[in-house]
Write a structure and sequence with these properties.
Bound molecules: adenosine-5'-triphosphate, pantoate, beta-alanine
CATH class of the largest domain: Alpha Beta
Distance between the termini: 37 Å
Number of helices: 11
Structural class: alpha/beta
Strand order of the largest sheet: 1-4-3-2-5-6
Helix content: 25-40%
Largest sheet: 6 strands, parallel
CATH topology of the largest domain: Rossmann fold
CATH superfamily of the largest domain: HUPs
Order of helices and strands: EHEHEHHEHHHEHEHHHEEEE
Radius of gyration: 19 Å
Shape: globular
């Protein structure tokens, strides 16, 4: 560990300042880990920062609410922003820098490039959030190059994102290892997510039903049932818990995301569902 573990990490706001730091670290032969986030940090993000801290001599957490990956302007406007609190939460982990660029550091005037990963983005969140993965892959490519990190840490909660980013780094020969980390959950099973802050008290009580339904369905799939048979009861249970819509509830191959009826190879169950105006996503291994 290189930082005093209770001193808040410096907040770096410009690319030249970031480069000055990383150049020094590189010259000293240090390894750099990056944890890309959009802020409103919770234990899920902190678990990524801890994993980076354990593996790398320098750790950068990035906080940037990337407008290009929001397909819905209301979602962007409502996205929680808690920078001071985020810095306080990171202090005990002892990260070395928090990179909080403004829009101009990431998308300078005239910016005209999009990184688009085909093949893994036509389904699941890609099918329901047009442009989302192009915007995400573009900013992540920039963050990889701006930080010149050796390793990048992503949560399995956003499993499709993890697959897309891994493919993108490989396809573009970006010399970075993408590390997937387990989903951190609340005690009642709800996957931690910044958007959970937007749930009303009443909706928060019903939110864990998504994970309950998925866990039951995964157990039934392992016992030999198929998705078509199980889906109607799962949807009915979500409906009676107050979910107003289900974007998808699908079994897919863990590698490549092909649609499956049964877990005849390593597979994951994926869901996205709406509760009181908030879109919750989750996925679990089957
Ligand atoms: N519960 C979690 N467990 C582990 N990693 C997580 C969890 N939630 C988010 N992450 C990871 O944190 C990184 C940053 O995600 P992001 O800032 O979008 O947070 P988020 O909580 O997923 O917010 P939202 O889904 O509401 O946008 C991503 O790699 C994401 O997968
Ligand atoms: C990876 C990411 C920080 C890119 O904006 C975002 O998609 C997220 O927070 O998961
Ligand atoms: N957590 C993935 C980023 C997003 O929802 O836009």
């Amino acid at each position: 560990m290189t930082a005093d573990s209770h001193r808040p990490a410096p907040i770096v706001r410009t690319l030249p300042d970031l480069r000055a730091l990383t150049r020094r670290w590189r010259d000293a032969g240090e390894t750099i880990g990056v944890v890309p986030t959009m802020g409103a940090l919770h234990q899920g993000h902190l678990s990524l920062a801890r994993a980076a801290r354990a593996d790398c001599s320098r750790v950068i957490v990035t906080i940037f609410v990337n407008p290009r990956q929001f397909n819905n302007p209301e979602d962007l406007a409502a996205y929680p922003r808690t920078e001071d609190e985020d810095a306080r939460k990171l202090a005990p982990i002892g990260v070395d820098a928090i990179y909080v660029p403004d829009g101009a550091q990431v998308y300078p005037e005239g910016f005209a490039t999009t990184v688009s990963v085909t093949g893994l983005t036509g389904m699941l969140c890609g099918a329901h959030r047009p442009g989302h993965f192009d915007g995400m892959a573009t900013v992540v490519a920039k963050l990889f190059l701006q930080t010149s990190a050796d390793r990048a840490y992503f949560g399995q909660k956003d499993y499709q994102q993890l697959q897309v980013v891994t493919r993108m780094a490989r396809d573009l020969d970006i010399p970075i290892e993408v590390v997937g980390c387990p989903t951190i959950r609340e005690e009642d099973g709800l996957a931690m997510s910044s958007r959970n802050l937007l749930l009303s008290d009443r909706a928060r009580i019903h939110a864990p039903v998504l994970h309950e339904v998925m866990a039951q369905m995964a157990a039934d799939l392992r016992a030999g049932a198929d998705v078509t048979t199980l889906r109607p009861a799962a949807l009915a249970r979500l409906d009676s818990a107050g979910f107003t819509g289900v974007d998808y509830l699908e079994l897919r191959a863990a590698e490549g995301l092909a649609l499956l009826e049964r877990p005849d190879r390593p597979a994951r169950l994926f869901a996205a569902a709406w509760l009181a105006g908030v879109r919750l996503i989750d996925n679990i291994a089957v």
